[in-house]
């Protein structure tokens, strides 16, 4: 089989990654580089009243102590990412003496050596006037606002409250999900270097054109004078999609000192200088007839955000549209607290909100005395219920069938506490997975040489997902050459722009535009053109305006598709089946096996897709049982801001895990029929685990992560 979409390959950047040949942002070697060290706030709310710099400045090698005293006015205010701007937080750290959250940058010390910068940072004396902070839900002083005030549309249809009141079978429950931090292995480093009035930035990024234009706006310079280099990214998960405020500070320091400046923040600083997944509380009401058909769905959410920024998770946009239901009411509320601004984290809306919906569906199945798989089947639909848009393709039923079969679901005894093995209570649970299919405007340049070698250039991003390989396979197919003849260049703002590596859009957006360029090359060859052929292509997907290309060049996010807009709803689906064992005395929870079956359009790069879905399900198990950022509610500070106390699943936690990828041809979503899979795998798995824990124990876990103490009594 010739190389192309759907053929199995190792990732083409794999060798460079395992041999150290892949250079990450802070690996860049620059002459005369100065080193920066951050000083972060010890309080969460209040003001800086004094700063004694003498001891810090006395450390040999210290070049400058940057603080609000000398940085005020240096970084311009820019628009919030979710409002079409660049920054993930509008809090400008060195702008004034104001403290908005714990761990806010209050100073940046730059020195000849890393050691001197660090020592000076520890010697800097900062005095504060502290006010009582509000850490989140239930704290005095939070401000609760409807997300609709900021333009969020709460999906609604019919009269859910009346239908709920009249229904035969109903459940109502409250759920909560915790703060999570991305913790990519690569720290939030930035290296800035000015050459002849032009700024070169080395920083791991999910959006190099956004970074370029955003920093230019912050520093008041021409975007053409900014070059962002980010060929490899050591994990992102949403944390590098929008700009953090550190970048402009490092760039400004380098400009003033006339030297390159490198910042490598610590792991704990990463918890407060970047974004995180906001904690949520949710209330779900479901009502159905005896046949299991939903008659009412009410989903309300409350989400923590910072004082100034209306970041919304907004997962009701998905949960309102997944099942056939004539009466739906939803509402999202933002709870403004003294916290850093949260942001996108792998399946931002779906991971927390589908946990609540899919847990509630399990509760409804119990109330109906109906098999939970059957309940999903009964409520399957080829049209989303809010506007009645047809799904471009939807094979949830195929996922339910394939997953149930592989798992052996028919052997399940539905009664809770009915299955056991020795001292372990055995529980089997399941849930639906969904992720909206996004596609954005994209550009690419493809060159074919007479030797048969090809080059693909586009400023897309491989955040560890396998994008290099997927894009290479699309070009191999489009040009009829083998993958080893294709060189793929990504992650550089001098390349033609591609969308933010968010919303699982990269494969669909970029492969479609690369194929367009390849088609043009083939056409020119057929017309007799000789020699090297270079084609630049632009693609504006159906439903997006032609200006989308211009916005892309400005580094503004412009994704289309999904469930809400246009003439059709587009999403990938899955069904997750999980076995848990809960020790009858200690209540320790283990996950001996899990099966995920997914229908996600055309799979471009099967080996990497399999890895993405596997990793996603592992994340889902972590979301169910391990992950949470602990917050000291007296001080509004994070407590486990390190990798030893921030728990994630490790090898011993994951045993058997099977991923099934169904063949799905979608001729409507986009020309190549590609749906995203980067975020699909971790949706629903948390609910499947919790539902399995209920089946094992008879205790319904409604608050993540599920811990022993919830199951004790
Ligand atoms: Mo991803 S959380 O959509 O960057």
Q: How is this structure best summarized?
A:
25% of the residues lie in helices and 25% in strands.
Give your account of this protein's structure:
- With 713 residues, the chain is α+β, with helices and mostly antiparallel strands.
- It has three domains: 14-21 and 438-561, 2-Layer Sandwich (Aldehyde Oxidoreductase, domain 4); 31-131 and 185-235 and 240-273, Alpha-Beta Complex (Aldehyde Oxidoreductase, domain 3); 147-180 and 276-437 and 566-712, Aldehyde oxidase/xanthine dehydrogenase, molybdopterin binding domain (Aldehyde Oxidoreductase, domain 4), CATH 3.30.365.
- Bound molecules: dioxothiomolybdenum(VI) ion (MOS).
- Dioxothiomolybdenum(VI) ion binds at residues 206, 237-238, 241, 344-346, 348, 502-503.
């Amino acid at each position: 089989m010739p190389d192309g979409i759907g053929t199995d390959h190792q990732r083409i950047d794999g060798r460079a990654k395992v041999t150290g040949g892949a250079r990450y942002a802070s690996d860049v070697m620059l002459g005369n580089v100065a080193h920066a060290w951050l000083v972060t706030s010890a309080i969460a709310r209040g003001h800086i009243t004094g700063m004694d710099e003498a001891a810090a400045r006395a450390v040999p090698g210290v070049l400058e102590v940057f603080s609000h005293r000398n940085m005020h006015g240096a970084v311009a205010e820019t628009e919030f990412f979710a409002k079409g701007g660049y920054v993930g937080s509008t809090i400008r750290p060195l702008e004034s003496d104001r403290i908005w959250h714990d761990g806010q940058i209050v100073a940046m010390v730059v020195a000849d050596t890393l050691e001197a910068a660090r020592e000076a940072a520890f010697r800097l004396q900062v005095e504060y006037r502290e006010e009582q902070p509000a850490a989140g839900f239930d704290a005095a002083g939070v401000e609760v606002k409807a997300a609709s005030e900021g333009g969020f549309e709460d999906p609604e249809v019919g009269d859910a409250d009346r239908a709920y009141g009249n229904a035969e079978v109903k459940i109502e429950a409250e759920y909560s999900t915790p703060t999570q931090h991305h913790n990519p292995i690569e720290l939030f480093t930035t290296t800035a270097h000015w050459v002849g009035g032009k700024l070169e930035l080395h920083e791991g990024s999910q959006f190099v054109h956004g970074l370029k234009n955003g920093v230019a706006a912050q520093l008041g310079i021409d975007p053409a004078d900014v070059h962002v280099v980010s060929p490899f990214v050591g994990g992102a998960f949403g944390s590098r999609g929008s700009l953090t405020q550190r970048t402009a500070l490092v760039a400004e320091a380098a400009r003033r000192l006339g030297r390159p400046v490198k910042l490598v923040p610590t792991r704990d600083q990463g918890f407060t200088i970047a974004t995180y997944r906001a904690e949520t509380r949710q209330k779900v009401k479901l009502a159905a007839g005896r046949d299991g058909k939903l008659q009412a769905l009410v989903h309300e959410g409350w989400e923590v955000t910072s004082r100034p920024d209306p970041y919304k998770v907004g997962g009701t946009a998905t949960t309102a549209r997944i099942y056939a239901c004539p009466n739906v009411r939803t509402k999202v509320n933002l709870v403004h607290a003294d916290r850093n601004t949260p942001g996108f984290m792998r399946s931002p809306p779906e991971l927390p909100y589908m946990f609540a919906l899919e847990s509630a569906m399990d509760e409804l199945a119990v109330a109906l005395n109906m098999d939970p798989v059957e309940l999903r089947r009964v409520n399957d639909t080829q049209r989303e219920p809010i506007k009645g848009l047809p799904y471009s393709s939807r094979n949830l039923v195929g996922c339910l069938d394939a997953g149930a079969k592989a798992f052996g679901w028919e052997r399940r005894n539905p009664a809770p506490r009915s299955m056991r093995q020795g001292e372990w209570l055995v529980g089997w649970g399941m849930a639906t997975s969904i992720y909206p299919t996004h596609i954005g405007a994209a550009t690419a340049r493809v060159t074919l040489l007479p030797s048969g070698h090809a080059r693909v250039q586009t400023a897309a991003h491989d955040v560890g997902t396998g994008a290099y390989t997927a894009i290479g396979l699309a070009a191999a197919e489009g040009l009829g050459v083998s993958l080893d003849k294709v060189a793929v260049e990504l992650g550089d703002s001098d390349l033609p722009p591609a969308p933010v590596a968010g919303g699982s859009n990269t494969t669909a957006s970029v492969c479609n535009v690369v194929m367009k360029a390849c088609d043009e090359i083939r056409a020119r060859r057929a017309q007799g053109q000789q020699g090297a052929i270079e084609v630049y292509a632009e693609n504006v997907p159906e439903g997006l305006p032609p200006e989308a290309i211009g916005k892309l060049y400005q580094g503004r996010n412009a994704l289309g598709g999904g469930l809400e807009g246009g003439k059709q709803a587009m999403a990938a689906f899955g069904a997750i089946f999980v076995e848990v064992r809960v020790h009858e005395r200690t209540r320790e929870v283990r996950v001996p096996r899990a099966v995920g079956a997914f229908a996600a359009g055309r799979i471009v790069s099967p080996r990497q897709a399999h890895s993405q879905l596997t990793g996603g399900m592992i994340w889902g198990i972590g979301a169910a049982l391990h992950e949470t950022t602990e917050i000291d509610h007296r001080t509004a500070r994070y407590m486990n801001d390190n990798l030893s106390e921030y728990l994630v699943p490790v090898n011993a936690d994951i045993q058997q895990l099977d991923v099934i990828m169904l063949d799905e041809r979608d001729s409507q979503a986009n020309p190549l029929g590609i749906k995203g899979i980067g975020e699909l795998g971790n949706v629903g798995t948390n609910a499947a685990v919790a539902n399995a824990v209920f089946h094992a124990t008879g205790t319904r876990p409604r608050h993540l992560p599920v811990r022993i103490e919830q199951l004790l009594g």
